Amino acid sequence: MKIISDIQELRDQLRGQNRASFVPTMGNLHEGHLSLMRIARQHGDPVIASIFVNRLQFGPNEDFDSYPRTLDADIEKLEKEGVYVLFAPTEKVLYPQPQEYRVDPPSELGDILEGEFRPGFFKGVCTVVLKLFSCVQPKVAVFGKKDYQQLMIVRQMVQQFALPVEIIAGETIRAEDGLALSSRNMYLSKEERLEAPYLQKILQEMRERVLNLSNQELNQNALLKIEEQALSQIQARGWQPDYLSIRKQSNLLPLGNQDLGKKPKMLILAAAKLGQTRLIDNLEIELEDTKS
Ligand code: PAF
User: Fold this and answer.
1) For ligand 1, is residue 50 a contact (CB within 6 Å)?
2) What is the 3-state secondary structure (H, E, C) of 165-222?
3) Both ends of the chain: CA-CA distance in Å?
4) Ligand 1: which atom is nearest the Cα of residue 25?
5) pTM to 2 decimals?
6) What average pLDDT score do residues 186-204 get?
7) What is the whole-number distance in angstroms between the Cα of residue 25 and the centre of ligand 1?
8) Taking burial as the number of CB atoms within 10 A of a residue's CB, which of 57, 174, 185, 228 is the most buried?
9) How confident is the model at residue 292 (pLDDT cuts 50, 70, 90)?
10) What is the DSSP string of the chain?
11) Residue of 283, 276, 246, 256 whose CA lies nearest to 113
């Protein structure tokens, strides 16, 4: 595997490659990332990964400085996955001057859920992803469904700017007890690690409650009640939830009674702090199986 930190060197190395498949990451790689590398391999060749901890997407009180940086271990893992090039630029390379041009996603999608609790997060993500796409020029790029809103926003950015990149979604990879793999799981204490799978568990309970509603019972109020009940359940166990929210899968907006009549695909999204660690997760719901 070639490890490249310079943009021109990357372009020289990739010249003539028009089927490259790309996985952008911030490093501290786990099985979730590696599964994205394998998906990338199925959709293009060669596979390019990037590692860059992007300051622009961190808020002033977030963990930019302490974000785990484990380059040597990451390199070993990527080599085993047969990655062709690792692009690992420094901040000086990617942002030689202050990055004053930014990509600002539309408020309806960029300022809700994660965007509400992490102002500027998606602006930072879109800006770096556009820049990384410009450096790597991939045909395909793979993003994980654990960051569902990020995946949707990147997809829309690609569509709106007519970027010649196909975005592929990778399923969330979980530990045996159901906890979604995340670089931030390493912040959890032993006790918190035992409690952490509850986030996925409460999403499954919410899904069950939605699926148990009859057609007559399925309305906006019933969904709000399910959300409120779940919020109090998780708070009672010591979590500090930002949101536990049932949304339309197509645009992540709340569902009105009219939407519900059409039995749309739904998604439950959650973000909650356990101690000092903020975890996110989500779960898709297909309404086909609801009671009639
Ligand atoms: O999901 C991530 O790891 C980051 O948000 C990404 C897409 C690499 C951009 O910095």
Assistant:
1) no
2) CEEEEECCCECCCCCECCHHHHHCCHHHHHHCCHHHHHHHHHHHHHHCCCCCCCCHHH
3) 55
4) 8
5) 0.97
6) 98
7) 5
8) 57
9) low
10) -EEE--HHHHHHHHTT--S-EEEEE-S---HHHHHHHHHHHHH-SSEEEEE---GGGS-TTSSTTTS---HHHHHHHHHHTT-SEEE---HHHH-SS---------HHHHSSTHHHHSTTHHHHHHHHHHHHHHHH--SEEEEEGGGHHHHHHHHHHHHHTT-S-EEEEEPPPB-TTSPBP-GGGGG--HHHHHHTTHHHHHHHHHHHHHHTS-TTT-SHHHHHHHHHHHHHHHHHTT-EEEEEEEEETTT-PBPPHHHHHT---EEEEEEEEETTEEEEEEEEE-GGGS--
11) 246
271 pocket-lining for ligand 1 (C-beta < 6 Å): no
If one residue of 29, 147, 153 were mutated to test the ligand 1 pocket, choosing by the most ligand atoms within 8 A of its CB, it would be: 147
Per residue in 161-188, pLDDT (tens digit) is 999 999 999 999 999 999 999 999 999 9
Residue 145 Cα to ligand 1 midpoint, Å, equals 12
Residue nearest to atom 8 of ligand 1 (CA): 25
Q: Is 128 in the pocket of ligand 1 (CB under 6 A)?
A: yes
Instruction: Show which residues are catalytic.
Output: 33
Q: Is the distance from CB of 36 to CB of 10 less than 8 angstroms?
A: no
- Mean pLDDT of all residues in 192-209: 98
